[in-house]
Write a structure and sequence with these properties.
InterPro entries: HAMP_dom, HATPase_C_sf, HATPase_dom, His_kinase_dom, HisK_dim/P_dom, HisK_dim/P_sf, HssS/ArlS-like, Sig_transdc_His_kin-like_C. Its EC number is 2.7.13.3. This protein has twelve helices and eleven strands. By secondary structure, it is an alpha+beta fold. It is rod-shaped and about 175 Å long. The strands form three sheets. A five-stranded mixed sheet has the order 6-8-9-11-10.
Length: 464
């Protein structure tokens, strides 16, 4: 069970209150036992029994009440044994017998130890009966060392309460130290982190790994810091991409438009003097127009993709029929090409839910990229395999491959790899980004494996 700050504080304050009380109670009990076992305290119980023993003897010899010395001699051994003095008082309050006076007369001394200031005289009254009738009262006096017993009790009390105060003080110090480590330290860390973030340092991490409210708050703060850092990095990257996009669009539009303008001016000036030259001019103008159309289409699809409005017409199709149609059309394009294009058949047969046009667009884009970046007499191989829960499509070429530093960014928007080839074949680096978006919209995955100098293999999956 994990405790939060509230529970920890509750238990801490409870311990500060309860633990000293328990310790004090244990000490009081212990010292009470010690006092009870003190010989002077145990003697008090014996004296109590002795008083009743003396009273019984007096009741049996009550006829000698008027003969002080005889009665005293009978009870003297018990009085000396228990160090008691005795006075007998009748019901009217008259003293009938007083052992102190008799001892003084017999010994010719002062009253028994009455001169010692440190000793205190205590009185106990016991009623005496004869034939079940109350006849008198026996008043017992005992001198005991009150100061010694009081000092002992005071010593025990001082030790008990003193230890309790020390215990409370120690627990308060420990609680303060614990709270400073649990609450104040992370708060200082938070204050320091906010200062760092305010100064632009988004790498400062709060190191507090406890799973309490403050720990969760610190974890949330670190998450917020990371998200803010990523947001700023993405903003910088987006701004850089925007500038690159504007520059690329300007270049990609200017180049074909300049060519188109030049060829149109040539036609206007009558440079194309024969049919063959005229058709060549028209062919170049058409080619440049198609490139512009392709560029505009990419930009349109990118804007739709960013807005989440790229239309998908998902239908259930037969996979074998779908791939047969797509690859058959592509095979026709390579009939007179010096690049070899091979399709591995048969295709797997399964019912899949796809947008036929978008899947065709993905395959065409990957193959056209391979075609652009492959050398003459190169080879492109394509096919599909049936896996447990998806169909895997692959397109492999034996070109120069992709540099390691380009692999991580090849599916990023506006990213173009080898600059010299990118300038040669044009484009703004949106094709593979759009392909990735389309495949992920189908619930699949698009990735590439490549080694520089040995070619590349693109894979994508379509769930069954």
């Amino acid at each position: 069970m994990k405790f939060g700050i509230r529970e920890k504080l509750f238990f801490s304050f409870t311990i500060v209150i309860v633990l000293p009380l328990i310790i004090i109670s244990i000490l009081l009990y212990y010292f009470t036992i010690q006092l009870e076992n003190d010989p002077r305290i145990r003697d008090l119980e014996k004296v109590k029994l002795g008083r009743y023993e003396i009273v019984d003897i007096i009741e049996d010899n009550y006829s000698l009440i008027s003969q002080d010395e005889k009665l005293y001699k009978i009870i003297k051994p018990l009085l000396e044994k228990y160090q008691l003095n005795l006075a007998i008082q009748d019901l009217d309050g008259y003293i009938l017998f007083d052992s102190e006076n008799i001892r003084g007369v017999l010994n010719n001394t002062e009253k028994y130890e009455s001169s010692e200031e440190s000793r205190v005289k205590t009185k106990t009254v016991v009623n005496m009966f004869h034939n079940n009738q109350k006849i008198s009262r026996a008043i017992f006096y005992k001198y005991r060392d009150e100061k010694a017993i009081a000092d002992k009790a005071r010593q025990y009390r001082f030790f008990t309460y003193g230890f309790g105060i020390i215990c409370v003080t120690g627990l308060i110090v420990l609680l303060t130290w614990y709270m400073s480590g649990t609450i104040l330290k992370p708060l200082k860390e938070l204050s320091k982190a906010t200062d760092n973030i305010a100064n632009g340092n988004l790498d400062y991490e709060i190191k507090y790994n406890r799973n309490d409210e403050i720990g969760k708050f610190c974890m949330g703060f670190n998450t917020m810091r990371i998200k803010l850092k990523e947001s700023l990095e993405n903003q910088v990257k987006y701004e850089k991409s925007r500038k690159e996009l504007i520059a690329s669009i300007s270049h990609e539009l200017r180049t074909p438009l300049t060519s188109i303008k030049g060829y149109v001016e040539g036609l206007e000036e009558g440079i194309a003097s024969n049919k063959e030259m005229f058709e060549r001019y028209i062919s170049v103008i058409k080619d440049k127009t198609e490139k512009l159309d392709h560029l505009i289409d990419d930009l349109f699809q990118y804007s739709q993709m960013e807005l989440g409005k790229l239309h998908m017409n998902i239908v259930t199709v037969d996979s074998r029929e779908l791939f047969q149609d797509i690859f058959k059309s592509l095979e026709n394009e390579f009939i007179d090409d010096i690049i070899s294009f091979t399709v591995q058949r048969p295709f797997p047969k399964a019912n899949i839910m796809v947008d036929r046009y978008r899947i065709s667009q993905v395959i065409d884009n990957i193959i056209q990229n391979a075609r652009r970046y492959i050398d003459d007499n190169g080879r492109i191989t394509a096919g599909a395999n049936l896996k447990d829960k998806y169909i895997e499509v692959y397109i492999k070429d034996n070109g120069k491959g992709i540099k390691k530093e380009d692999l991580e960014n090849i599916f990023e928007k506006f990213y173009r790899g080898e600059k010299s080839r990118a300038r040669k074949y044009g484009g703004v680096g949106l094709g593979l980004s759009i392909c990735k978006y389309i495949i992920e919209a189908h619930g699949g995955r698009l990735w590439v494996e490549s080694k520089e100098g040995e070619g590349s293999t693109f894979y994508f999956t379509i769930p069954l």
